[in-house]
Design brief:
The protein is mostly helical and 94 residues long. It contains 4 helices and 2 strands. The protein has one domain. The protein is elongated, with a radius of gyration of 15 Å.
């Protein structure tokens, strides 16, 4: 699985691969939230964590860019998502 920042960084390459005739145009894109304030608070919390396993930090605008670009450029594009559960008040567990 991937995350919005990784996809955005490699959007041209991913789009090119997904447009190939024998590649299924499907991509799972997990999300933490669709709320800019929740994403900002989550980013602040994750910057305090040192596990190294934090999901990528992104904005609502970046997520929309990923989705809009894929739908516009990849014929028959299908996107699925997983909602990552958690809230900015959560704590970093060791």
């Amino acid at each position: 699985m991937t995350n919005p920042p990784f996809i955005l960084e490699h959007l041209n390459e991913i789009t090119e691969v997904l447009c190939q005739p024998f590649v299924y145009s499907f991509l799972p894109v997990p999300v933490q939230s669709g709320s800019e304030s929740v994403l900002t608070a989550t980013a602040e919390l994750l910057s305090d964590c040192s596990s190294g396993n934090e999901p990528g930090i992104y904005t609502v605008s970046e997520f929309r860019t990923v989705v809009d670009t894929l739908y516009r450029l990849v014929p028959g594009m299908q996107i699925a998502t997983d909602i990552i559960c958690g809230f900015p008040g959560m704590i970093c567990a060791v």
